[in-house]
Amino acid sequence: MLSVFMASSAGCSQRIEPNNEPVILTEASKKDCNIELYIKQDIKLGKYEPPKGVYLGAYVDRNSDIHADITAFEEIVGQPQTFKVFQYTMGKGLSSQDILKCIAQRKVPYIKILLGNDRDLTPLYRMISDLNSSYSVPIFIELFPLTQNLSQPLAYKEIYQRAYEIIEKYLEHAVIVWSVDDSRLYDMPLYYPGDHLADWVGINLYIPQYKDNVKYSFSNLEGIDFWYKSFQKSKPMMISSLAISHFSRVDHTYSLKDAEYKLNLFYQEMLSIYPRIKGILYIDVDMGEVVKNGKEDYRITSQKELADYMKHIFKREDFLDELQESDQNEAPIYMKYDITAAQFGEELYLSKKYMNALFRKVPLSKVTMLEDLNGEKYYKLDDVKQYIDIYYKSEKQ
Asked: Is pTM, for the whole model, over 0.85?
């Protein structure tokens, strides 16, 4: 059972001075305890990053049941969306009428551009021509997501940079999102183009019932944690694609309760664990309409039970339906660190190396200290709250 200890305010009027005489402890009295530690820090806000709150969006263009209408999606799930998501392809293109309709519906266009096998940038020029730089509204562009079929990191970063520079030159109000499929999380450092070539960072998650005709069990929470901690200090982040299957034609069975569990995981629990995730875009499609022999149905809108469940989730007050343009350059946020604390009795302590790395401004002489037989010093975690705004989650033994 997770025990959560909320931070005390940094400016307490009274401080209890600890008796800091060293207490020598045997190794047997110490237990390791893994904790999630959250430290409040000021971060530089990214383009259109809300100081608080989470943007919402949906891709509905291939959903014939609701006639590819974002307003129909909103009515079914009971929540206005910030973004309408488009996918740009050579065959279909993206017309100025599409963008004008999106803007008329008070949605922000969010355009996904996949990198073709021929690495031809002609579609990009064509998209810019279609959009026309006269549009003086923000447009989010997810540029060349890192998918399973991409290789050659240097060549990828080179063409990504060329595309980024073209967009920056011709689309004044573009916001560039660099994204990665969850299957590529651990090699993403090889492909990331650099902080100067991305405004936001996204992750794409498709969770089927079956994969390659084998029952699929989603188990990539560690990868998501790796992704988040890689960017939490430098970039606003979003779940740039989320698709959760509730029906598969492999076995023709429904799994609505499992879908509800996963929806809660991403729209509730994840946002609590990862406070710099500032957007979630849902992919509301039946793959049977998208590709030949598509097996998975990811639509929330096709099942009243799921739609009603989303109406319940969307009662949170921090979901946003409009783009935020803050006059703040910085905002406080809790940075997440996974560390191992030492548990002595019922209390948690941090080793001196953690104190030096994370809490250099905390006066160690005023923090309760214990010492083991090897001379290693440990400092009481709850005492740190007198000086730094923190909270933590622990699994006490």
From this structure: yes
**What secondary structure does DSSP assign to 44-81, as a single string?**
E--TT--SS-EEEEEE-TT-GGGTT-HHHHHHHHT---
| Phi, psi at 256, each rounded to 5° | -70, -40
**Residues 133-181: tens digit of each pLDDT:** 556 789 999 999 999 999 999 999 999 999 999 999 988 889 999 999 9
DSSP H/E element including 102 = helix 96-104
Question: Contact at 8 Å (CB) between 143 and 109?
Answer: no
Angle at 18 between CA 12 and CA 21, to 5 degrees: 160
Contacts for 319 with CB less than 8 Å, ≥ 6 apart? 53, 54, 56, 79
Residues 154-173 as b/e (b if ≥16 CB within 10 A, e otherwise) read eebbebbeebbeebeebbee
User: What is the domain partition of the chain in residue ranges?
Assistant: 3-44+330-394, 54-320
Residue pair 245/207 in contact by the 8 Å Cβ criterion: yes
Q: 234: Cβ–Cβ under 8 A, 6 or more apart, which residues?
A: 195
- The crossing angle, in degrees rounded to 10, of helices 70-77 and 304-313 is 80
**Alpha carbons 389 and 397: distance in angstroms, whole number:** 25
The structural architecture, per CATH, of the domain 54-320 is: Alpha-Beta Barrel (3.20)
Taking the C-alpha atoms of residue 125 and residue 128, their distance in angstroms, rounded to an integer, is 5
